[in-house]
Amino acid sequence: MPDILITEFMDESQVARLAKEYDVSYQPDLVSRQADIPALMAGVRGLIVRNATQVRGPVLDAADRLECVGRLGVGLDNIDMAACKARGIKVFPALGANADSVAELALGAIFVMFRRSFLATPDVVAGKWPRLELMGREVQGKRLGIIGFGATGQALAWRARGCGMSRIVYDPWVVKDDPRWAEFKADRAETLDDLLPQCDAISIHVPLTDDTRNLFNAETIAKMKDRALLLNLSRGGIVDEQALVDALKSGKLWGAFTDVFVEEPLTAPNIFDGVPNFYCTPHVGPRTEEGEGKVSSVTADAVLNCLNGN
User: Fold this and answer.
1) How many CA atoms lie within 13 A of 284 on its CB side?
2) Active site members
3) Are 202 and 229 in contact (CB under 8 A)?
4) Which pTM was predicted?
5) The domain 4-95+289-307 is classified under which CATH number: 2.50.20.10, 3.40.50.1980, 1.10.3720.10, 3.40.50.720?
6) Model confidence over 128-143: pLDDT tens digits?
């Protein structure tokens, strides 16, 4: 029986580090066989997962020695936090470890969408010359709204400032006199409605909770500035996908980028087929060599500290 079970990809140098002290079962493909996980939980003291492994119900019921769950990332919607708390199981998200990777993807998407020219390669190579169709807009001087002022929101605010964007942030959990406002020279929105009509682009960086589910819906998007951008790099379900599609088709939004979906992976056909000015990636915000290394290292630290009684 292993001391530590890892059900999804983890940097192998950190797997080896864990294995120096404990018996480790590293099965990165186990996430595709989730029904097999409960039978492997006997004796496991530390469970390490990403966002796909469901740590709830049968998994927790079968865990007779589980002390901690290491989350290779920050979202916790795949973990039954109340059940873990009731059982005395500690949960360690890798807070801040992938913030730079996600913020860089967000900023890159902002440039891509404002210019609209980066996807012209096939046409240009084929001999077309669509210069008039590719009229873009400058990023400098635009106002960026950031939803959530945690590590990723801060990393994006810092980068956007260097690009000449003004920044306004909505996060009801960060109080008015918090020093981060001055440190990042960001304006604070009292309410979401205060922020919406001001911004040329809005980027979402909050967890999926009952309060944030469908936070951006038809009514919310209608309050946004015309020809604004909307980006979601947090969790599917925070943006109403049908409302997003409708806003792009009507021209209300200049563009939208999402790295996350309600259903992952998407099934074809789906509502995004043929939608204009829609850009997406397959939940790769944290997936950089540097980000993966930091996430794995932070998670290994947390699990080792817990099992060693530190």
Assistant:
1) 9
2) 235, 264, 283
3) yes
4) 0.91
5) 3.40.50.720
6) 999 999 999 999 999 9
